[in-house]
Design brief:
Layout: H1 2-31, E1 41-47, E2 50-71, E3 77-82, E4 89-90, E5 95-99, H2 102-137, H3 143-176, E6 178-180, E7 185-187, E8 197-198, E9 207-222, H4 223-235, E10 247-251, E11 263-273, E12 278-285, E13 297-314, E14 319-320, E15 326-331, E16 337-341, E17 343-348, E18 351-356, E19 363-367, E20 378-382
Parallel strand pairs: 1-20
Antiparallel strand pairs: 1-19, 2-9, 2-13, 3-5, 3-8, 4-7, 5-6, 7-9, 9-12, 10-11, 10-13, 11-12, 13-18, 14-15, 15-16, 15-19, 17-18
Helix pairs in contact: 2-3
Main location: other
InterPro entries: MdtA-like_b-barrel, MdtA-like_BSH, MdtA-like_C, MdtA-like_HH, RND_pump_MFP
Protein name: MexX family efflux pump subunit
């Protein structure tokens, strides 16, 4: 029995030895096996380029009519007719109201009669002055009588001149009985109706005519924005606007819908509003279809200069580190990626304006960011994402 136990013990030891040797060989074989290399990850890449970028500022503003005419009567009387349709278009010189002309026709007739009377008096006094002049040479009349005759003649001529002026005034007042529009534009509601009594130069306007094409857009720019622009101009980061007036694009809603007609900046005020620390700007915008109405709140994009060699990158290519620093994945010469810190200035359309950290020719990852990490080897293909700078530029 002891011999049988010894044989079993020897068999177990032999099996354990063989198993250990097999494991050791397998481990050595694994250690010496070649390590398999991961294939490159395909990502969308864009190459950084420098471009000429207009420096724009987006400002709030309100529209106002290009011209406004408050229609008031210049003579007293009863309104007999209203000659326009409320809310319609009127032309310059178009009759709007007709005031009862009869009293003014009578005054004109009276003035003409006074002129005839004065002219008759001029004829009589002139003849008398001529006769006295002839008689004066023969001493048939005194010098005093002749001087009185000449004075009477001049008085009659002055009366005739006054009568002519009275006729002209009466004609003007008669013309004023037809109230006309001084400008072309759209007329609003009428404040009076037929039969109303009006007085000359009254405080209440009969109606208001507004010229809407073109139309003004009054804007407010903060003093800080204006100061930053001046610093950029002084430092050479921004060039002044090209010859001519800066272009203005009106944005109709919060979505940034652009009004199709381009305007231009007329002037920038030199006075700062004490309450708001803003400077007033005024732009004029074509309005052929009357889409812009006075009093509308709009935003306007004003071109204030040009930045040469600007670098724009797509917004989706930029991510933030734990400390909030802006970074991009930079593709190296060996086609491996690494995070790279940049400085962004402002959002321009669907991109970021980069002020430091990138140079023309650098390649950055735009698509496939979730598939990479530092040191990943990539297969770069051109990205389909393009920076469109006109979509929604930020403020300066």
């Amino acid at each position: 029995m002891s011999r049988l136990r010894m044989l079993r013990r020897a068999a177990v030891v032999a099996l354990l030895t063989v198993g250990a040797a097999a494991c050791e060989q397998q481990g050595q074989g694994t250690a010496h096996a070649p390590k398999q290399e991961q294939p490159p990850v395909e990502v969308g890449v864009t190459t950084v380029e420098a471009r000429r970028l207009p420096v724009t500022v987006e400002l709030p503003g309100r529209t106002s009519a290009f011209r406004v005419a408050e229609i008031r009567p210049q003579v007293d009387g009863i309104v007999r007719e209203r000659l326009f349709r409320e809310g319609g278009e009127v032309a310059a010189g178009q009759p709007l109201y007709r005031i009862d002309p009869k009293p003014y026709e009578a005054r004109l007739a009276s003035a003409r009669a006074e002129l005839q009377k004065a002219q008759a008096n001029v004829a009589a006094t002139s003849a008398k002055a001529r006769r006295y002049k002839e008689l004066l040479t023969s001493n048939a009349v005194s010098r005093q009588n002749y001087d009185d005759a000449v004075a009477a003649q001049k008085q009659a001529e002055a009366d005739a001149a006054a009568a002519r002026a009275a006729i002209e005034a009466a004609e003007i007042n008669l013309d004023y009985t037809t109230v006309v529009s001084p400008i072309a534009g759209r007329i609003g509601k009428s404040a009076i109706s037929e039969g109303a009594l009006v007085t000359a130069n009254q405080a209440t306007a009969l109606a208001v005519v507004q010229q809407l094409d073109p139309i003004y857009v009054d804007l407010s720019q903060s003093l800080a924005q204006l100061a930053q622009l001046r610093r950029d101009l002084a430092a050479g980061r921004v060039e002044g606007h090209d010859a001519g007036r800066p272009a203005v694009t009106v944005l109709l809603d919060t979505a940034g819908t652009a009004y199709p007609e381009k305007g231009e900046l007329l002037f920038s005020d030199v006075t700062v509003e004490a309450d708001t620390s803003t400077v007033q700007l005024r732009a004029v915008v074509p309005n052929p279809r009357a889409e812009l109405l006075p009093g509308m709140f709009v935003r306007a994009r004003v071109e204030q200069g040009v930045r040469e060699n600007a670098i724009l990158v797509p917004q989706q290519a930029v991510f933030r580190s734990a400390d909030g620093e802006a970074r991009v994945w930079l593709v190296g010469a060996d086609d491996t990626v690494s995070p790279h810190a940049i400085q962004t200035d402002k959002a321009v359309g669907n991109g970021w304006l980069v002020s430091a950290g990138l140079k023309p020719g650098d390649r950055i990852v735009v698509e496939g960011l979730q598939k990479i990490r530092p040191g990943t080897r990539v297969s770069a293909v051109p990205s389909k994402v393009q920076v469109v700078a006109e979509l929604a530029p930020g403020t300066r």
